[in-house]
Amino acid sequence: MRKKRRSILEQQDVAKEIIGFFGCSYLGFRRAGERSKVHFQYACSIGEHPAGSITLANLERAAEVAKQKTDLHTELPYSQVSGLCKSCIAERNNKLSPAYEITELNAFAESNHNGKCLSDAYSRAHALYIWKCSNPSHDSFPSSWTNVKDSGKWCPNCWDERRGQSHRMPLEDVVSAVDKWGGEIQAHWYQGNKMHVNILCPNGHNYSTLGSSAKKRHGRLGR
What we know:
This protein is α+β, with helices and mostly antiparallel strands. 35% of the residues lie in helices and 21% in strands. The chain folds into three domains: 8-95, no CATH class; 102-163, no CATH class; 165-215, no CATH class.
């Protein structure tokens, strides 16, 4: 059963309540066209902060997140309060105690990857920090704390080495396949583990394609 669409007056009542919840003043609404979303305008209680506008869906999402936010160490992402006074959000986040100490990031890198976090201070989970793996020949790399802790991402050079050149398609296989239909490989190169080849077909056409496509006789000119 489809949800009943709220009238503009009903939407205004909800918007006024939520905007007031955030300590802002309701200024009205605007809509660019008949099918455009309604944007509710507000003024921040702090005079020097610029006024803004926001859809009702984003207002309701912001209110839900804010009401559930009981832990002062939990950050409030910009994406979840898009359109509400960003100056206030930034100031509020800057006043919060950091959720982690930089020593905890370093301890995690050491215990899980035998590596290090080279950054000086922690700010927030999605900020970029500098990390270093245990291989002295590998460069340090930037990554967020979320990616390292929750997604398991680590040194891109280590990842490339683990995949290894053994996963690359042998050039001989592609040469043999192309030779069967009269083509000639002029050059080849790798991007990661994917082989790219430049082929001269029997009709004199020169083109580039993936080695896997050439091996399967896909992307071939002059059939």
